[in-house]
Every structure is written in C-alpha cells, then in structure tokens.
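Materials and Methods. Structural model of Leucine-rich repeat-containing protein 52. The 291-residue sequence of Leucine-rich repeat-containing protein 52 from Grus japonensis was retrieved and submitted for structure prediction as follows.
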Amino acid sequence: MSPSGRSQPLSLVLLLGMGMASERVSCPSRCSCRYLEVNCTGQQLQEFPAAIPLDTRQLILAANNVSYLPAVELSFLADLVYLDCRKNLLGDDLDFAFIGVAKLVYLDLSFNNLTQVTFSTFSHLLSLVVLKISDNPNLVAIEKDAFANNTWLRHLDVSRTGLTFLDTSTVRDLPNLRFLGLSDNLWHCNCSFLDFITWMTESNVHFPDADNITCYTPEGLRALKMPALEAQLHFNCLTQLYKQDYIFLGLIGFCIFFAGTVAAWLAGICAVIYEVHTSKEEEEEEEDTVA
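The predicted structure was written out as tokens:
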C-alpha cells in the first residue's frame, strides 16, 4: 500500500479524535454531554454553566442552586428547544431572560422562587408548548396578558402555588390549551371568580387532579369542589344581596324619601303662598267695590 494510502485512514482517525476531544472540552464542568444534550442534574451548581455547546437542543439544570438565568448566555443557544430548570432558586429576574431562545418548546420552572409572572416573562417564547410553573409557593400573581404571545401553549401547570385568583382571559384566549393544572392553590371563591369557574365547566381543557381544585376562602366555601361551587356562587352572586348592597339600597331609599319630603314641603309652601296671595286680591277687590 502506498504511503498516501496509509496516511488517509490515519488522517481520518486523527480528525475523529480531535472532534471527540473538542466535544469533551466544550462540555461544562460537572455536566454530562451527548449529541445535542447537556445534562447538569443535581450537581449543586450555583451559577448558569459556562461553555455549553452552541448547538445544544436540550439543557437540563434540574436540582441545583441556580438563582439567575443570564439572557446573553442563553441567547447563544439559539437552537434550544428543551430547558429543564426545576428545583432551583430562580426568582423574579426572569423578564427578558428568554429573549434569545425563541425556538423553546418545553420549559420547566417548577419548584423555584417565582412570585409573579408578567407579560415580559415569556413574551418572546412564541413556540412554547409546555410550561410548568407549579410548586412555586410564593407565586401570587399572573398578569392578565402574561401568555398573550404564547398562542401555541398546550400544557400549563400552575398547581401548588400561592395563587388566589386567575383572570379568565389569561387562559381562555389560548386557542391550543388542552391541559391546565390548578390543584392545591388558595383560590378565593368570590363573585369575581364565577366567570372563571363557568369557563372551566364549558371548556374542552383537561384539569388533572380535579378533586383538589377547591376553595380556600371564604370560610363558608372552604374545601368546596368546583362543580358544586359553580351552583353555590350562582345562587350567592345572582340571587342574594350582600351587606353593601343593602346599604346602597338603603341610601337610595333615603334619598328618594328625602327628595319626596322636600318636594311635598315646597309644594305646600307654594300652595300657602298662592292662597295668601289670592285672599289679598279678593279683599282688595271687595274694598274697591265698597268704595
């Protein structure tokens, strides 16, 4: 075999070896890497890992102590479609964090320290299909238009949070929504919540663990499940009056009574003045006749 014939396989081996070495070098410390996937589960990472391969499609950061997702570093992963950040320390500095990962389809932020979700939090994730933000016990507010741009969203889980209210339009306007987790939240079941419950009963969305979707307040409705709650709220809100309603009606009645009394008093004064004036004219006419 010619020298050139021997060098060709040798060159190929060297190139493959360099490629494998390059792949090993580019894998973040304490993480495992394979084709298009980086897995850093349970490595007690304090920060977002460096040197993630730019062609990564799946990034798993579960069970660490990461408290911040840097938008710049994330934007380098333009092909990322799967991001698992469950069981970390992520808080409310996520606005615009996902601006560079528009292809993201799956995002898990459960078991973190979120307290609110605004329009800016997920507005750039136009391809998002699955979003898990359950088990954030301090999550107390989701803005009305928080998911306005996430029209492909099919699976949304907000179970076991601190939510007491969720505006109906927040989920009703998601045309592809098929799964909505709502269980074990602190729902405040007042008349403002009636519209949401009515939507739940009429929609085609699946509510897992439906037996645990119950009221927390007011006291009289605590632990009441949604089907029974709808009928109860319809009765309370549409047929009964609350204390403030009685006060309002009392004020209206008093105003009507007062206005009627004043009108009658004025009419009486006018009648007396008219009688006095008429009597004087008659007396003057009689005096003129006698004269």
